[in-house]
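Data card: per-record layout.
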Amino acid sequence: MDGYEPTENRLKLMSGILFWCALVVVSSAYVTTPLTGIFEQGFDVSSTRAVLPTSLFSLFYALGFLFFGPVSDRFGRKETLVAGFASLTIATLCTGMVSQFGTFLFWRSVQGFAAACFAPTALAYVFDVYPRRKIGGVVGLISFGYVASGIFGQVVAEWIGQTFDWHLVFYLFTIFYAASFIAIIALLPLAKRQVKHQQAVRHFLHGTKTVFQHRGLLKCYCITVLLLLIFIGMYTILGDMLVRAPFNLDDGAVMMVRAAGLIGMLCSLFAGKFITAFGKERILQSGLLLSVGGLLMLGLVNGVGLITLASIIYVAGMSLIFPAIMMMIGDFSGGVRGVANAWYAFILFAGATVGPMCAVGIAEITGPRLAVVLLGGVLAIALGIALTFKQYGDERKDGLHE
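The structure for this 402-residue chain is written out next.
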């Protein structure tokens, strides 16, 4: 059961579990985004403070990556996932049981830290366990879970918040995490190809120095910091934009526009094949081009149909960006992959931490529509960086060694 060369059917089951975990873990970063108005009224706080549950989760989620990366290198991938999901289940239950805003923020922070067990560990696990020919497809599937979580988490939370009570969001996710915990224990094999490092902190510090001396990884990280900053920032102000003139949508219609983004996420299912056919650099560039175009369209067009189409285009681009950049980081990092993945995840959610506050601050000055256009302009910087990969040949460099 714990060999590192599972059968084809076992690999499919493992991939399904990893997709599910990616979906429900990262959804927690988004569930408070559509609940901001409920928090303003329920806790009697300002709009700036009402986004703190999202920002603090993202902050401690990012910090947690720097902890769980070395831990998984030292104690093992599966072992880290088991301990992490046990902690996440308890923290999520406690988050749903509170009635004071300060206590709520505390448990959201703990929840974010515990949730960080998955992303860096799972990506390293895939490279340790799966045959090389399967890695691209599995990374694409996990990426689909990550990107789909941005819509799934918001839609589930918004529906529960409108229909029942926001506390039920966290009770539901407690059940999700408990089920994931059981599935990991029972169905994921140990990563026996992994080389465990007895001096985990020393390995992490040495790996960090090595990682930040690699030009290709530095470029990947510069792109990474903008991705969720803009994604969460855009969705934070999207609802406010749609309830205003000229759209004047009600809450149900806003939820449908959010949900339509799931159509664009289907691109993740084909990302592995696209990367094999065209190369990860070209797919990264294409995804960024789509996303920039989608954001500009989102901020400039009139009509709910065009707004919905723009959001689908934007999300389709994001669905290509994530698997491509994850594959690039995995290939660049080689023997320090666990460290590189930890920094990738940290930088990704460091951007997510400031995304809601930046978007709300910009929207208060410019209005939500111009704010979305400005976010598109910022993402164009990432596109410019991505276009340099072929020029300088970073993709041809060998993976790093310890």
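Known properties of this structure: The two ends are 30 Å apart (CA to CA). The chain has 18 helices and no strands.

See the next section for split statistics.
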